[in-house]
Amino acid sequence: MAIAHTLVPRVTSVAPSYQHGQAPDYDTASMAELRAWVDTIAELTQPDRVHWVDGSRAENTHLMNQLVDEGKLIKLNPEWRPGSYLARSHPSDVARTEARTFIASNREEDAGPTNNWADPTEMRATMNTVFAGSMRGRTMYVIPFSMGPVGGALSHIGVQVTDSAYAVASMSIMTRVGASVLERIADGDPWVRTVHSVGAPLQPGEADVEWPCNDDKYIVHFPDTLEVYSYGSGYGGNAILAKKCFALRIASVIARDEGWLAEHMLLVRVISPEGKQYHVAAAFPSACGKTNLAMLRPTIPGWKVETLGDDIVWIRPGTDGRLYAMNPEAGFFGVAPGTGESTNITAVETLWGNTIFTNVALRPDGDVWWEGLTDTPPEGLIDWEGNPWNPASGKPAAHPNSRFTVSAAQCPQISDDWENPEGVPLDAILFGGRRASNVPLVVEATDWTHGVFLGATISSERTAAAEGTVGELRRDPFAMLPFCGYNMGDYFAHWLNVGKSLRFDRAPRIFQVNWFRRGDDGRFLWPGFGDNARVIDWIIRRVEGQVSAEATPIGRIPLIDDLDLSGLTIPEADLAELFDIDPQAWLAEADSTEEFFEIFGDRLPAALRSELDALRYRLAQTQRSLT
Ligand code: GTP
Ligand code: SPV
Ligand code: MN
C-alpha cells in the first residue's frame, strides 16, 4: 500500500516558454486553435483578464490567498487542518440541478427519454445570449486538464474556461492540471471544450459577493461536437466540468463510439487472506455509498482493501478478453455528513489537511464539523449558512450535500496502481441502490445479460446530492440516470455488446447489493460500512467457485452459513428479512419495470424484455409452489 507523499496541489512541470498566467507560445496549429477558441470565448464573455492556469504550487497559493482576501474562502486553523479552507455556497446553489441539465444532440432520439433534450441550434443561441458579457469584471481562467494520467492510453484531455477561482482550485485537486497537458494539445491530441460561468458579471466598482451565482442555470452538453457549457452555478458537478459533464456525459458518448464504458462507479482492489488480488467496481447512485465502499476497512480479519477510485471509472475490453478499469479523476469530491471514525476512518484520515470543505459547519477553534463526524456536536458551531447553530432548531449544522474536495494521493489506503495508465482487470461488478424493502443484501446475476438487466432496473431512494424530494423512489439504471450522455436504451445495448466482446470465463461476475434494507421499525437491518467486507468476501468466494448459492427467481443468494458473520450479532429474524424475497412485491416490481422499459420504445434491447419475461415466469413458479 502506498503512503501518500504528494500534497495538493499537484505540481506539473512548466514548459520553458510558459509564463505564469500567460498564454503558451507553442508554435503549432493545434495550439493556435486552442488560443483562437479561448479568444472567442473571451470575446463573448468579456472578462477583465485571462489567466492560463499552469498548475504550479505558487499559482495555487496565490489563488487561495486571493479567495480568502475576497471573503470567498475561510482559512481553517492550520493547527487542526493545515492548508484547508471552508467555502459557503449560496443557499440556492447546493447540489446538481438535473432539471436544468440538457443534452443538445443533433437528433432528439439520441438524447433519449431519460434526458432533457434541447435543440442544439436554439441552445447555442441561448448560450450566446446568457454568456454574453457574463464574465465582466472577473478573471477568466483557462484550465488545461487530463482525465487519467497525462498521455495514458485510456486518458482524455480537455480545457475548462471558468470565471470561478473556486472552480479552478477544485479542478486542480480533482484532475491533472497544467503545462504537461498543453504539451499534449500542442502535439495534436484531441481535447474536449468546456465553458463555465457563474453568471454574475460585476459592474465597475461593484462589490463581489461570497458565492456568486445566478438563479437561471444551464448545464448543457453538445455530444456531437464534444462541448459543455455550464452557466449560473458554482457547485460541484455543475462547475467542476471535468467530472460529471465530461468524464460521464461526454465520455459515455465517446465510449459508445469507441467500444468502452464510462461509468458512475467506485473501484477497489481487494486482497484476500491468501494474498490474492481482485478488482471490484460498483455503481451506486449519488450519495448511496461509493466513497465509503471505496475506502472500506474490512471488519473481518485477513482481508485488505485498497482504493483506486470513488466516483467514476472508465472501462475498456482488453485483448485478453477481460475488462480493464481506470479512475480518470485525481481527487475525491465526497459527501461530508455521515463520514466519521466509526463509518469511514479512511476518509477522516484523508482529510487531515489540504482540503477544501464546502457547506460544512465551522467550529469556534477554526476547524470543521458535520453530522456524523463525532457523536455529539461541539459547542459554539457556526452552521453552513454562516449563522450560530442552534441544535434545538432541528436543522443540520452542515448541509446534507456538504462535501470535501481532497487529492486522492492523500488517502492512506490508495493503491500503488491508482495511476496505472493500463487500468486494472475487473473480477466483479456491483450494482446497488438505497432500498428500504424488497432488494436483498446481495444477489448474484446468472450471467452477463441478467447482470445488465439488474443494472438497467436499479431503483433507489433519492438523496440530497441533487435537487428533488429526498426519499422518493426512482429508477436510476446503472446509477447513470443523470449522467448518461445518450439514449439510455442504446446504452443498455452497448453494455450487452461489451459483454459479447469478453471471454465468457473472464468477464467480471455481476452482483446486486443493498446496504439499506430496513426493518418495520425503520432501522437498517445490515450494519454496513466496514461490515460490507463480509459481502465482498462472499462475492470473491463466488468468483473463485468456492461456495454454492441458492437459486431464487431474482438471482442467486448466499446460503446464510456461507456468510462470514463472526463477531456480529444480527438477530436471525433480521438476517431472514435481509434475504426475504416476496413474490408479490417482486411481481409488482416487474410491473413497474415493464412501465419503465416502455419509455424506451424500440430502443430497448429485446434481451432485456426477455429477462423481464423470464423473471415473471420464475416468480409465478415460486408463487405456485408456495400456494
Ligand atoms: P456521491 O459522491 O454523491 O456519488 O455519493 P457516494 O455514492 O460516494 O456516497 P457516500 O459513500 O458518500 O455515502 C453517502 C451517504 O451514505 C453517507 O452519509 C454515508 O454515511 C452513507 N452510507 C455509505 N455506506 C453506507 C452503508 O454501508 N450503510 C449505511 N447505512 N449508510 C451508508
Ligand atoms: C454525485 O452527485 O454523484 C456526485 C457529486 O458525485 S457531483 O460532482 O456534484 O455530481
Ligand atoms: Mn457521484
Give the topology.
Blueprint: H1 29-45, E1 49-52, H2 57-69, E2 74-75, E3 85-87, E4 101-103, H3 108-111, E5 116-117, H4 120-131, E6 139-147, E7 156-162, H5 165-174, E8 176-177, H6 179-186, E9 191-197, E10 218-222, E11 227-231, H7 236-239, H8 242-258, E12 261-263, E13 265-271, E14 277-283, H9 290-294, E15 304-309, E16 313-317, E17 323-326, E18 331-335, H10 345-350, E19 356-358, E20 361-362, E21 368-369, E22 403-407, E23 424-425, E24 428-432, E25 442-444, H11 448-456, E26 459-461, E27 473-475, H12 488-500, E28 509-513, H13 533-543, E29 549-552, E30 555-558, H14 572-578, H15 583-598, H16 606-626
Parallel strand pairs: 1-6, 3-19, 4-5, 4-10, 7-9, 9-11, 14-24, 24-28
Antiparallel strand pairs: 2-3, 6-7, 6-8, 10-11, 12-16, 13-14, 13-15, 16-17, 17-23, 18-22, 19-22, 20-21, 25-28, 26-27, 29-30
Helix pairs in contact: 2-5, 11-12, 11-16, 15-16
This protein binds guanosine-5'-triphosphate, sulfopyruvate and manganese (II) ion.
Describe the structure.
It contains 16 helices and 30 strands. The protein is globular and about 75 Å long. 28% of the residues lie in helices and 20% in strands. A hairpin with an 8-residue loop joins strand 6 (139-147) and strand 7 (156-162). Strands 1, 4, 5, 6, 7, 8, 9, 10 and 11 form a 9-stranded mixed sheet that branches. Strands 15-13-14-24-28-25 form a 6-stranded mixed sheet, with helices on both faces. The model is unreliable at 1-18 (pLDDT under 50). With 627 residues, the protein is α/β, with parallel strands linked by helices. The chain folds into 3 domains: 4-72 and 97-258, Phosphoenolpyruvate Carboxykinase, domain 1 (3-Layer(aba) Sandwich), CATH 3.40.449.10; 262-329 and 418-626, Phosphoenolpyruvate Carboxykinase, domain 3 (Alpha-Beta Complex); 331-410, Phosphoenolpyruvate Carboxykinase, domain 2 (Beta Complex). Bound molecules: guanosine-5'-triphosphate (GTP), sulfopyruvate and manganese (II) ion (MN). Residues 96, 236-237, 243-244, 286, 311, 333, 465 line the site of sulfopyruvate.
